[in-house]
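Proteins fold. Shown next:

***
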Amino acid sequence: MARRTPRPHARRTAATGQGCRVTADGRGRAQGGRAVSGQQWFAFVESNTTGTGREFCAAAWARGLRPVLLTRDAARYVYVEQDGVETRVLDTGDMAAVLDHCAELLRDGGLAGIASSSEYFVSTAALVAAKLGLPAADGDAIARCRDKETQRIELAAAGVPVPRFTAATEAGQAVRAAAAIGHPVVLKPVLGSGSVGVRLCRDAAETRAWAAELLGRATDERGNPVPGRILVEAAVQGPEFSVETFDGAVVTAVAKHIGPEPYFVETGHDVPAPVPERTAAALGDTALRALAALGLGWGAAHTELRLTDEGPVVIEVNPRLAGGMIPVAVRAALGIDLVDAVIARAAGQPVPPARDAAGRAAVRFLHMEREGRVTDIAGLTAAREAPGVVAVGINTAVGRTVRRTNSFQDRLGSVVATGADPQQAGARAWDATRLITIGQTDPEERPQHENLAGPAQGAGGR
């Protein structure tokens, strides 16, 4: 059976406008506020540009720490200016540069910990923390896990159920692999996050075209170089879930809502997943087996699975905290604050127990209806005051241009709501999203060279 978590503390927060979050005990960070002299630094190596990144900074402030974002481009982050987050601009793809900056922070007032909510930088954060003698996960294990081919090989060798898969380095090889596996197949980058570049291919023509598209990309949406290698895997049928874990123990299973094929854009989440206890236990057990096989188990992990007639199949293990506002929903439903737990663990501080909570929560996303420049955002107050709503997030800003990427970047906003049951929580969250309107001008003509996987301006990036 899955081992259950010792239930870390739930830090109750209330949104007080886009740029301020205040905790139930009165601690918080006002928009544009200044750090208190004597606070230790807490460094973030990049961040999610959406909800969880902002939550991480709020949690660090609430613990009396001084968050600083190490980033190539602070303009990517809507919340940085709104919340007064301090930044350091450097090449975060250069581990030596990150190490130098963190060592400087250690000398300048002390450095309590290092973390990242971004898939692309969790390994760097862990490796740098370890070099400086700070609490950290196994950075090498994280790096191996992040390579989806290596991850599949290690899971399969340990007997953990995964889809049939083959790596390909050219389009013809991908077509042959798909024929051997059997269509439909899923093509994805071996390094990536947020469903960027992930697509269902139903036949050889679609497989060849999408493989050529992926293999033609030199960088990801963050500007990091990518290997000339993609994954071709069987399309597993069945509902999708995630299992959230902390320190090698199951926190909860989460039900996913997925948009229309051929893409895999998440449209919402239900916490906890409305499934029988036996099913939840099977999902949790499979996730823990996967983590053990990969040498993971320190801190947070987010494992995605499909539930087939034969049982759970691991789609991906992500060696980081979940995005997509899942941690906010977990806090609202179960009283477990995973964001706060990550900060506490990385800072070497105790992880307090859970608090009372609503029991059920849901996340629903506000997706872009068309491309264009954002001219107006309205209805946020009405959404925040709607029944059951505990969090409203906006992932864009007036003046930004949003481009469709068929990934998580298409989500312009989110609502988290609680309810007496999954149906009520979901309905409340969905109804609140419809109170929000985002005005846009007609899109400018897209430059021919623009990378569809990651716009220079848009809803964000992980």
Observations:
- The domain at 164-234 is CATH 3.30.1490.20 (Dna Ligase; domain 1).
- The chain has a mean pLDDT of 87.
- The radius of gyration is 21 Å.
- The chain has 13 helices and 22 strands.
